[in-house]
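Hi there, hope your week has been kind to you so far. Would you mind checking whether the tokens look sensible for this chain? I owe you a coffee for this, so here goes:
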Amino acid sequence: MKKYILLLIIPFFFVQSKAQNTTLLESYKDSILHYSSELIYKTNSDNRKQELSDKLSNYILRFAKQENSIDFDLSSLKIVKVITSDDKKLRLFTWVVPFSDKAFVYKGIAQSYNSSKKQYGSSKLIDQTDKFWYSVQNKTLNIKRWYGSYYYKIITTKRGKKTFYTVIGWKGISKTIQSKVIEIITLRNNGGITFGYNLFSIKGYEYFAKNRRSSKRLVFKFSSQSNMYIDYDYQTIIIKTKKGKKNNSSRSSQSGFSAQSGNKKEKVKIKTIKDNMIVLDRLVPTSPQMLEFYDFYYPESNIFDALRWENNVWKYYPDIDARNKEPEEKKNNRKIQYDLIPKQ
């Protein structure tokens, strides 16, 4: 009889504990919503913004320490952007603090899986943008030396037993220049995070002509008056290759053909690839004289490039078809909304 009662009591306490955990996670989420909204919309004081951002960090860290928090739905958060990898070994919380001197400071919390201890850990990401302004494309960074960005997409890929997390983010730079960032993240067995990995095969990509041999991240700078589309999407690549072919001249003469029959003729071969890929607007300067003056860079109308995961790297493809119909929700979100950042 006692064993029977015990079997009834144990599931009851399990359900009760799970309910309490869910209630606590909901409470933390509500606090994150409250303080993030106040940070962006209800204060102009830099000191108050810093105070609110610190409170956000504390509540996110408390949230991340709770059991099963990695599975908790945070899609209702907007100002604090939350992205989670497919394997649920990495979750990133990022937000932007716009100060009155028109400087953007990026804040972040990383929740990562420690495979050695079989548990999750969390840590703050420290924005160190100013320390590697000109050479960030080739830097390997970590949580204490982070190229702060507002991440909105994460893509999980594998090369053998190693897993790579490719993130896409937005980064305001100045009043006239903004940027998009494509970053590679790797995890160590202890859950430690590394930013930057040379997984980009971008030969022929004019925008990165100076850095194409050793890019560990891609940073696209362009005018703050425009918007660059970068997202992970199902699209089509059409590849046209030409192969020379020469007719047999002796056979041609025997058949009564002219001498021109022996000339080379180009045969066009078309290969179509349909796959998920990173789709990008092509950025160009308004004139050749504006080369590398990024406040004069704009997306070229109706021309898209792509990065496709191929042979364990992100391979560059120019001029993709980009005609596949977008789902309605993706079409509505095609332009990332940055109204969380007050106009400067």
User: Anything to note?
Assistant: The chain is about 20% helix and 40% strand. The longest strand covers residues 264-285. The CA atoms of residues 75 and 276 lie 23 Å apart.
